[in-house]
Each structure stands twice: as structure tokens, then as C-alpha cells.
Amino acid sequence: MLTTCVQPTTAGTGPGLLAALGAWTWLGVDPVDTDLAHVLLAHPPGRSGHDTVLAIEARMRHLSASLGGLAEPPDLVPDLGERLLIVDTATVLLRFHSTPFGIQLPVRPGWTQHVRDHGQAVIVIGLDPLPRSADLPRVDTYLDAGLASGRLLFGLARPACPPPATHALP
Fold this sequence. Notes:
By secondary structure, this protein is of the alpha/beta class. The chain contains 4 helices and 7 strands; from the N terminus they run H-E-E-H-E-E-E-H-E-H-E. It has helices at residues 15-20, 53-67, 109-118, 136-149; strands at 22-29, 35-42, 79-88, 91-95, 102-105, 121-126, 152-159. A 7-stranded mixed sheet has the order 1-2-6-7-3-4-5. The radius of gyration is 17 Å and the shape is globular. The model is unreliable at 1-11 (pLDDT under 50).
């Protein structure tokens, strides 16, 4: 029997992919100048021959599908449902379908409070690589280039309702 091992090019939404992703959060505005919380997820540049631009794009599209399917710029931005779990003002987790894993987002208390008050944040997935160490000017350049080339996907995520409080009676 001949067994061939093939390196997968589109790893699932497992802990390896999620741990490798870069995540950035900020408060900005939507196209009609309404305040809106933003989250950007981007894959770092490849470290091996298996991390081609096409493989990275495929992983990011798979990630989009595991959030419920994000849209390209001309399309209507989909509601991804309750994807943000707010633990406290400094800890927010982004949750995915069909995996017990998530991403802890880099947030500030003002960002978290805005999401609590307004009930949503836009999730942006970049299809091109971006180093996790990218500073704000580089992220802005990445976003501008991604918008111009149609290489960004968008969706709206809402905070998950906290579980109901249970009180034990004495």
C-alpha cells in the first residue's frame, strides 16, 4: 500500500492558525460617519514554501466561512451574530463556528465600552499577509490597498449575551 503525506494548504480554523493571526482593534467611523468599533484579522507573511499567497488567501477565506461568511466591499455587510464574548473591559474573545478555539482581541476599555453601548463591531479580514508587528501607519496603508484592490472581507459581529446569573438559595 502506498501512502502519500501531503502538506495541507488550507489549515482549518484550529489553534495553530488562530495563534498565528495578527489582530488589531480601533474606534473609527463607518461610510456615513457613524462611530464604529473595528477588528482587523490578517495572516502573517509566509515562513515556508507552503505559505504561498494563494494558501494564505485560502486560509483567510476559510476563516471568514467559520465566522459565518464575510462579504466583499460592494456587497451588503452580513450580520455574523454573537461572535464577541466580553469577559471584562480588557478581555474580549472572538468566537468561531465549529471550533472550541477563539482569538483574544487586543482591546482598550473605550473600545469594549463602545461595543457594549452600540452592540456591534465590524470584522475585517485581510486576504493578503501583514506582519503581526505592523504599526498603525502600516495598518492604514494595508487597509487602503485592500479596499482599492477588493482584498478585504467585512462582517458585523455582536457581543454575546452574558449567561443569566444564577443565584443559589441558602
